[in-house]
Amino acid sequence: MKFRHRSQTADKTELSMTSMIDIVFLLLVFFVMTFKISAQEGDFNVKMPLEGVSGPSDNTQLPLKLRLISNGAGGLQEIVLNDNLSFGTDWEKLRGYIVGLVGDAAGPGEEEGPEVEIDLDYDLHYVHVISAITSVTGYRSGNDIVKLIDRIKFAKQRK
């Protein structure tokens, strides 16, 4: 039995690296050119209630209590602030009251300024919760975003 010896030059296949490098650079240029820098949206400072812990930690700055009442089918029936101010279902009235209460000059810092505690019915649709958060956190004035209240927390769940 004879083995044929192949030449070493026939065994080597040459890879063209320049075409692969060109493709990598084209992909890099494509992703750099299509990358858009935009402001982060939906970044809310929301505190969820702890299980079994009750009582406010600081009584000097009590939160505004925003109560969202459901009509039983998931729709919004009434917006009540601090158990005595009713806004019906008008988010703009709530926002106007918050602007009058907090002011819209510079916006609060993360650790200062008022806090809102949102208390809602169990069967309320999620879109109303997002509308409540949007109404109290700020609004758009032209191309600028005016921040009102940054600190938001949720009350214990109602059933």
From TrEMBL:
Sorted UniProt keywords: Cell membrane, Membrane, Protein transport, Transmembrane, Transmembrane helix, Transport
GO cellular component entries: plasma membrane
Keyword Ribonucleoprotein set for record: no
Any one GO molecular function term: transmembrane transporter activity
Pfam families from the UniProt entry: ExbD (PF02472)
Main location (coarse class): membrane
UniProt keyword annotation of Transmembrane helix present: yes
Biological process, per Gene Ontology: protein transport
Membrane topology of this protein: Single-pass membrane protein; Single-pass type II membrane protein
Localization: Cell membrane
Family to which the UniProt record says this protein belongs: Belongs to the ExbD/TolR family.
Protein name as it appears in the record: Biopolymer transport protein ExbD/TolR
Species whose genome carries this gene: Aureliella helgolandensis
